[in-house]
Write a structure and sequence with these properties.
By secondary structure, the chain is mostly helical. It has a domain at about 25-95. About 60% of the residues lie in helices and about 5% in strands. It is built from 4 helices and 2 strands; from the N terminus they run αααββα. A two-stranded antiparallel sheet has the order 1-2. Strand 1 and strand 2 (about 65) form a beta hairpin. Helix 3 packs antiparallel against helix 4 (about 70-95). The longest helix is centred in the C-terminal third of the chain and has 26 residues, at about 70-95. The radius of gyration is 21 Å and the shape is flat. About 5% of the residues are buried.
């Protein structure tokens, strides 16, 4: 009998429980590899933008990342925000792409 068998069965049970706890919308969108790749790319772009604005990431004269002790909470918040922005944008792209409604190209200022 293999001693790692109970550990692997516990891991698979925990993984299946985690997957079942995720909302259906997240499972549908992130079951496709292109959406995962785009979400990661968007999160990285927002991470760079947020850390440049927080003055933690510098590109001139050389690429430098500086995290002082008093900016740790802000850094954690920018990481969370960048990840959530990646998820939000990709889920909206998925909804627009798979929507059954036709988008009308009309100006908002035109009178009907």
């Amino acid at each position: 009998m293999n001693s790692s068998s109970p550990i692997t069965s516990i891991k698979t049970k925990l993984l299946s429980l985690l997957v079942s706890l995720l909302p259906l919308s997240i499972r549908i969108v992130f079951s496709r590899a292109p959406y995962i790749a785009l979400a990661i790319g968007i999160a990285v772009i927002f991470w760079i933008i947020f850390n440049v604005f927080e003055q933690l990431l510098f590109f001139s004269p050389i690429w430098v990342f500086y995290l002082p002790e008093d900016a740790v909470i802000g850094f954690i918040l920018t990481n969370i925000t960048a990840i959530l922005m990646g998820i939000l944008v990709i889920m909206n792209v998925y909804v627009i792409k798979h929507s059954k409604l036709k988008l009308v190209n009309r100006h908002f200022l035109e009178q009907a």
